[in-house]
Structure formats: structure tokens, C-alpha cells
Automatic annotation (TrEMBL):
<feature type="domain" description="AB hydrolase-1">
    <location>
        <begin position="30"/>
        <end position="282"/>
    </location>
</feature>
<dbReference type="InterPro" id="IPR000073">
    <property type="entry name" value="AB_hydrolase_1"/>
</dbReference>
<dbReference type="InterPro" id="IPR050228">
    <property type="entry name" value="Carboxylesterase_BioH"/>
</dbReference>
<keyword id="KW-0378">Hydrolase</keyword>
<dbReference type="Pfam" id="PF12697">
    <property type="entry name" value="Abhydrolase_6"/>
</dbReference>
<dbReference type="GO" id="GO:0016787">
    <property type="term" value="F:hydrolase activity"/>
</dbReference>
<protein>
    <submittedName>
        <fullName>Alpha/beta hydrolase</fullName>
    </submittedName>
</protein>
<dbReference type="InterPro" id="IPR029058">
    <property type="entry name" value="AB_hydrolase_fold"/>
</dbReference>
Length: 289
């Protein structure tokens, strides 16, 4: 089946969960693992920019899009198994991980030798409390109460995402603006993308990935990663993301670091979501080729 100029496919993960994906392009296989509040096609323009050189696979991580549910035994290990299943089925030896998807990609490279080169875009690792997750119970309570706007504001403030001016606004005003943004998004129905409201419950599981991989100090366990690694970040991103990249740069044996001037955490996304996919694609292509 073809949609959005891509071919749809799926693989079966170790626990039987279906993982759906979009495929486009030609050349060596490259899996692009999305981050929080996203689905596979959230990086469709990045894949398009790379498609002349690589066969790009854009999986929907479990719990969203064309993939199956999280399951009762959800953990970062299930996400690793999902990526491993896609790598095995496609023969891809390159991967790009974005945000929480970068943590999953890194953990996969740690335990699976199927990857030759990986690109990690701003993995939100908690390095000695740099990215705490103790706000998750409040987020869960607000979401359970049906107050999606409040939950999204809690998440945005805790992760320090969104325009800097927003983070200085009173909470009640932020919640009102979030409600308006949700209504505008639902009205526009952009390209069939899931809305903030639809994706909000998935944030719990991305935070769980961060919590499971928190470290009291430098992530020394990653010294055994054999793949070549490109660490990419934006100069305008929150400081804790630079802290994680710095820590990884110190311990990964085959890594180099790139900081992209003028860009923030949304850089890999589609242009409608304030992304700059062409610029990021140029760095990825140079590294992989």
C-alpha cells in the first residue's frame, strides 16, 4: 500500500506487537526513530531529503499510528525489540534517533551489533538529575481528569520545550493558549497528523524511557557501543540536552559532535512544526556517506 508518497509495511516484534512503518527512497537502509509527541511521518520531510541516497524507514513506535499497543509489560526493552525487529527485517545498518527515539537507538546499539552508524539527535538522558521525571504523576493525574491542556503544559514546562517566552507566562494563560492551539490544530486537520490531544497519552511512555535510563553520573555503560556515532544538537535547545550530548561525547569510543547554530529541539521535524529538515539531512548525509 502507498500513501504520502511512501510504501507502508509492518514487522512483528518479539512480543507479537505489530510495528508499522513508512518506506521511501533508494540505497542503503536507514531507520528514523521519532521522539515524543510524534509518529513516523513527523520526520517525513527529513526522509524525503535523504531519499536519493538511502532507503528510509519511518516506524510508528508502539502505542501510536500504524503500530500495536504498548502492552502491560512495556519498558525501554520492548522499544529496543521493536527497532531490532525492523533492522532484522530490512537489513538496515544505519539509524537516526530523535529525542527519546535517540535513547532507544543508543540502547539498541549497545546490545545489538546490527548497526554500523547511528545519529543521535538530542537524547534527553537524565545525567545526575539534569532531566528529572518526578513531574510524571501530576501529568498522569491531569490527563486522567480529562484536562489535556493542563497535562500538556505540565509536560512542556518540565521538559523546557516550546518558545522561551511561553515558559515565562503564568500557567493559567499557558493553559488557555494550549486549548486554542488544540482547537486550531483539530480544525486544520493537517495532513492527517495526530493532534496534541491524541498524542498526549503517549508522553507518559517517553518519560518512562527517560526514567529507566537515568544515570547517577556519566553513562559509562555506553563505552561498549561499537557503532560510529554522530551526536547532533541545536544551539537553541535546553541546557540539559547539551549536558547529555557532552556526557555521551566523553564516553562513546567512536563519536563526533555537531552543534547546529540557530536550531532547537524541533529541527528534525517537518517545516510546519518549525523544523529545518534540509539542514539536518545535510549533516546526516555527510556522516553516513
Amino acid at each position: 500500500m502507498t500513501t504520502l508518497g511512501t510504501t507502508l509495511g509492518d514487522v512483528t516484534s518479539k512480543d507479537g506487537t505489530t510495528i508499522g512503518y513508512h518506506r521511501l527512497g533508494r540505497g542503503p537502509g536507514l531507520v528514523i526513530v521519532h521522539g515524543a509527541m510524534q509518529v513516523g511521518r513527523s520526520q517525513i520531510e527529513l526522509a524525503q531529503a535523504l531519499s536519493d541516497d538511502f532507503t528510509c524507514y519511518l516506524p510508528d513506535r508502539r502505542g501510536r499510528g500504524g503500530s500495536g499497543p504498548y502492552g502491560r509489560a512495556y519498558s525501554v526493552e520492548r522499544e529496543i525489540e521493536d527497532l531490532d525487529a525492523l533492522l532484522a527485517a530490512t537489513g538496515a545498518r544505519y539509524a537516526v534517533g530523535i529525542s527519546s527515539g535517540a535513547i532507544i537507538t543508543l540502547r539498541t546499539a549497545l546490545t545489538r551489533p546490527a548497526l554500523d552508524k547511528i545519529v543521535l539527535f538530542e537524547p534527553p538522558l537524565d545525567i545526575a538529575g539534569s532531566n528529572p521525571t518526578d513531574w510524571l504523576p501530576r501529568f498522569d493525574r491531569e490527563l486522567a481528569a480529562g484536562d489535556t491542556a493542563a497535562a500538556l503544559v505540565t509536560g512542556m514546562r518540565a521538559t523546557r520545550m516550546g518558545p522561551p517566552i511561553f515558559l515565562r507566562l503564568p500557567r493559567f494563560l499557558l493553559e488557555r493558549l494550549t486549548v486554542l492551539a488544540q482547537k486550531g490544530q483539530e480544525k486544520s486537520g493537517a495532513d492527517g497528523e495526530p493532534t496534541f490531544g491524541e498524542l498526549a497519552p503517549t508522553l507518559h511512555y517517553d518519560v518512562q524511557v527517560v526514567a529507566e535510563t537515568a544515570t547517577a553520573g556519566e553513562p559509562v555503560a555506553y563505552r561498549s557501543v561499537g557503532a560510529e556515532v554522530l551526536l547532533v544538537g541545536g544551539a537553541k535547545s535546553p541546557a540539559y540536552l547539551r549536558t547529555a550530548l557532552d556526557a555521551l561525547h566523553r564516553v562513546l569510543p567512536r563519536a563526533r559532535r555537531v552543534e547546529m547554530a540557530g536550531l532547537g529541539h524541533s529541527a528534525t521535524g517537518n517545516t510546519r512544526q518549525r523544523g529545518r529538515p534540509e539542514r539536518v539531512a545535510a549533516e546526516i548525509r555527510a556522516f553516513l556517506t
